[in-house]
Amino acid sequence: xxxxxxxxxxxxxxxxxxxxxxxxxxxxxxxxxxxxxxxxxxxxxxxxxxxxxxxxxxxxxxxxxxxxxxxxxxxxxxxxxxxxxxxxxxxxxxxxxxxxxxxxxxxxxxxxxxxxxxxxxxxxxxxxxxxxxxxxxxxxxxxxxxxxxxxxxxxxxxxxxxxxxxxxxxxxxxxxxxxxxxxxxxxxxxxxxxxxxxxxxxxxxxxxxxxxxxxxxxxxxxxxxxxx
Length: 228
Known about the structure:
This protein starts with 19 loop residues before the first helix and ends with a helix. α6 (155-172) links the parallel β4 and β5. The protein has helices at residues 20-33, 44-47, 59-66, 81-88, 121-138, 155-172, 209-225; strands spanning 38-42, 71-75, 100-104, 143-147, 179-182. It has a five-stranded parallel sheet with strand order 2-1-3-4-5. It is α/β, with parallel strands linked by helices.
């Protein structure tokens, strides 16, 4: 059986509002002098939480919850699982032994561009699974939180996300004492189950300050359970 491209490490695929290779170089320097207790790995949803070389939509929430903690943000706008695999295999975790890693990956597998024609939910799942398995091997003492991919528009993408999340839940939920699956998607929906646009900066996928607060508050019990 052919290995899905979602599992094959590769560097930048897309151009975004920042310099991908410059960010990678900066992170290689950062890990040389920072020993993080908490590491976030993901795409623009993670990247834009902290105003480093991006919009920083959730900066106020980041400062409130994480500025006083030893935290490393390894979110890159427009990254897919294969990009995240490449980065961690090219020294972004060098010298790190965090207590907790939060993975929020998979939504960009369904983002179709001139450079990428999209993946099936099954291939997206394979990529997230490969990423988590690689993290378990590289960080043998760390615990990992696998986030359900947040709701986004349009609906045809959201249907794929729902299928991906069902696969993630089935595989990760309560199967390994080092892994927790965290699904907070109901908090991003209105009572009738529709998309709550008031929690996003756009109708696509990026939370605003209120959306990031929901995520941070949901993570707090997990962090406190690890005395972080």
